[in-house]
Amino acid sequence: MSASSSSVSAIRRQALALRLAHCQTCKEKVRMYVSxxxxxxxxxxxxxxxxxxxxxxWRWELEYVEFLVDKHYLSGEAGVDAIGAAEEHREELLxxxxxxxxxxSVSLGxxxxxxxxxxxxxxxxxxxxxxLGKELVMLMKMLVAVVVLLGVAALVRIMLKK
Length: 162
Known about the structure:
By secondary structure, the chain is an alpha+beta fold. The protein has four helices and six strands; from the N terminus they run αββββααββα. The protein has helices at 3-6, 61-70, 76-102, 123-161; strands spanning 7-9, 30-35, 44-48, 58-60, 112-114, 120-122.
């Protein structure tokens, strides 16, 4: 699989702007990519421009942050913040991936979900609907609890009148 089919390069993200270091093996600049594979959709990784040719530098985002901290490119509070942001980003992607897998036969590699009637839905809309469904289930549970409490209160009142 070629790099162009499994990733998108030169994408800037607002959440985490990391320094692009030089590869320690071949001295080429490391570049940021975003995975487009089904298993790792939208996950950020960093690799050397010569990866697969003369170099084997390749890291997921969190591993790259740890590499920068180890090599003292990031230190102190900046390093801690970068690690925290990378962990949060990874958790968000894992949650989104879980929502898609809960929905059944949804392909993560596609940015659009297609239902039987042919209507299209974006992944954000699908995630929003899944969250709305969870909230509705919670409200239904609370409603059942209130009805049960009212029933118990009515029984107690009837028992006390006799």
